[in-house]
Amino acid sequence: MLSRMAKVDRLLGFISMCLFIGLLTVVIIQILSRYFPFDLIWTEELSRYLFVYSMVTAAPIALRKQEFIRVDMLILALPEKTRRVYECVIAGLAFIFSLVLVIYGLHFLQLGADFYAPTLGFSMAYAYAAVPLLGVLLMVYSIVYMFDRFSPTEEVEKGDNLL
């Protein structure tokens, strides 16, 4: 299972990087368009959606690699087994939060089905789909994180390169 998750990690990392490169490209176009004789009004909206989806694909990897901000002074003082149990409890809470994201994100998605993006013209359901997608990915990765804590060899160490 862990080797499959390493492939999923790489895929999510690649998608996140492509989305971020797209974001940078759109922002550069937006900056340069100030000097064009015409306005490119779609760049601001597209950059927002690219940013959101790049975070949706990067957040699960950050969860697994423990790259979210946390105060660990007291956690590091705990014995190893207690620390692992504590980290699993935190991952369980992340799972519950992710479940809430999925449930309410699906309602949010249904609300956006009738609306369209002002400048790009696509259904806002695509933009709002980021919320339940993030929830599903975080649910899967919180479970994987719990397995990682008790596996004999942790496959994804902090600072591993995903590309």
Describe this protein with a few key phrases:
163 residues; mainly alpha
Summarize the helices and strands and which ones pair or pack.
Layout: H1 2-32, H2 42-64, H3 73-77, H4 80-112, H5 124-128, H6 130-150
Helix pairs in contact: 1-2, 2-6, 4-6
Structural commentary:
By secondary structure, the protein is an all-alpha fold. It is 72% helix and 0% strand. The chain is built from six helices and no strands. Helix 1 packs antiparallel against helix 2 (42-64), helix 2 (42-64) packs parallel to helix 6 and helix 4 (80-112) runs antiparallel to helix 6 (130-150). It is elongated and about 65 Å long.
**Helicity range of the residues?**
over 70%
What does the main sheet amount to?
Answer: none
Give the structural class.
mainly alpha
Q: Kindly report how far apart the N and C termini lie.
A: 19 Å
Mean pLDDT over all positions: 87
Overall geometric form: elongated
What's the gyration radius in Å?
Answer: 19 Å
Number of discrete helical segments: 6
Task: Please tally the β strands and state the result.
Answer: 0
Q: Encode the helix/strand succession as letters.
A: HHHHHH
